[in-house]
């Protein structure tokens, strides 16, 4: 009887030890699996994933240190989001002074591939609208260099770009600080707009080579649209190309309340000569109400040709004061 009891106790002891060992091994396996899952989650949290302008999914590692930018306006947004660049284009026009010391890596339309590769970048900021820059993409893919194709034309797209940049730099606080401030400034202006007034406007774009009409889907056109202005060039009966052709007959027929002119180029005398040839040289131009009453206005480049970025509130307010002087004194 004692032998039987001893035998049973021994068997139970062996089973308990085995069970304990099994539980320990299972716990260890679970711990290892959890550890691997945490590592994978941690690694994934080091990346920002988004859809670019071409609809492609892009995955960028956070906090890149060797960034090259080929778009001055986007460079400024990148610095606002806490980033820095080591490379830029050969122009400092409308570029933050903080980026002046970056190395030149070619021009806006002709990037220097050898220079880019020699700097060993971990991110390139490229314009989606420049064919010379988009041509870099195969080289960047071949060398495993991350890149972003960028295009932003209005307030909403600017705020979206700022948010993406801030996620990449790890400075969401700057996005909240700057983005929220800009949005508040614009919202405050929009809430003050008179509900019963919609002034008609003509938006022109002048260079030394030509003068053409700009439509509501341009950066300044969208600001004017938000401010309740009606662009006389928009006509459902015409194609976009036809709407952009400068036609004195159509302008005279609609006689806009305001005429705004954007200029592009550094040779202001040639631009003015071209505008004069197309407008003031025509007797009918002087008969327009906007011209006679001093509402023909040349827009400053820094806010209405280049991207205003952090100054969007100022850009909205400037046009609001012109359109509604009785409200925005």
Topology of helices and strands:
Layout lengths: L1 H43 L2 E5 L5 E5 L5 E3 L2 H9 L6 E2 L14 E2 L8 H6 L4 E5 L3 H4 L2 H6 L4 E4 L4 H15 L2 H19 L9 E7 L4 E3 L5 H8 L3 E2 L8 H5 L3 H7 L3 E6 L4 H11 L10 H4 L3 E3 L2 H4 L7 H12 L6
Parallel strand pairs: 3-6, 4-5, 6-7, 8-10, 8-11, 11-12
Antiparallel strand pairs: 1-2, 8-9
Structure description:
With 329 residues, the protein is an alpha/beta fold. The protein has two domains: 48-187, 3-Layer(aba) Sandwich (Rossmann fold); 194-323, Rossmann fold (3-Layer(aba) Sandwich). The protein is 47% helix and 14% strand. It is built from 14 helices and twelve strands. The chain has helices at residues 2-44, 72-80, 113-118, 131-134, 137-142, 155-169, 172-190, 219-226, 240-244, 248-254, 268-278, 289-292, 301-304, 312-323, and strands spanning 47-51, 57-61, 67-69, 87-88, 103-104, 123-127, 147-150, 200-206, 211-213, 230-231, 258-263, 296-298. The strands form four sheets. Strands 8, 9, 10, 11 and 12 form a five-stranded mixed beta sheet that branches. Strands 3-6-7 form a three-stranded parallel beta sheet. Strand 8 and strand 9 (211-213) form a beta hairpin. It is globular.
């Amino acid at each position: 009887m004692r032998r039987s009891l001893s035998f049973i106790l021994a068997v139970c002891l062996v089973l308990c030890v085995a069970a304990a060992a099994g539980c320990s091994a299972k716990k260890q396996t679970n711990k290892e699996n959890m550890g691997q899952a945490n590592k994978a989650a941690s690694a994934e949290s080091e990346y920002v994933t988004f859809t670019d302008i071409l609809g492609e999914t892009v995955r960028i590692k956070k906090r890149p240190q060797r960034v090259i930018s080929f778009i001055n306006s986007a460079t400024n947004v990148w610095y606002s989001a806490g980033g820095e660049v080591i490379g830029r284009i050969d122009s400092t026009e409308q570029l933050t002074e903080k980026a002046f010391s970056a190395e030149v890596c070619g021009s806006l339309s002709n990037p220097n591939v050898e220079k880019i590769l020699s700097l060993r970048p971990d991110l390139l900021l490229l314009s989606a609208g420049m064919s010379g820059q988009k041509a870099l993409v195969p080289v960047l893919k071949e060398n495993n260099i991350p890149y972003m194709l960028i295009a932003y034309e209005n307030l909403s797209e600017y705020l979206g770009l700022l948010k993406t940049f801030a996620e990449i730099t790890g400075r969401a606080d700057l996005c909240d600080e700057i983005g929220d401030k800009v949005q508040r400034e614009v919202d405050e202006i929009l809430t003050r707009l008179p509900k019963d007034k919609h002034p008609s406007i003509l938006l022109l774009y002048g260079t030394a080579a030509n003068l053409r009409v700009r439509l509501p889907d341009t950066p300044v056109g969208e600001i004017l649209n938000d401010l309740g202005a009606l662009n006389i060039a928009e006509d459902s009966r015409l194609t976009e190309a036809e709407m952009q052709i400068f036609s004195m007959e159509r302008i005279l027929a609609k006689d806009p309340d305001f005429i705004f002119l954007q200029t592009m180029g550094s040779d202001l005398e040639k631009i003015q000569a071209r505008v004069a040839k197309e407008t003031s040289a025509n007797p009918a131009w002087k008969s327009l109400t906007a011209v006679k009453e001093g509402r023909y206005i040349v827009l400053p480049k820094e806010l209405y040709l280049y991207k205003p970025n952090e100054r969007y509130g100022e850009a909205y307010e400037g046009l609001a004061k012109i359109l509604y002087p009785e409200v925005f004194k």
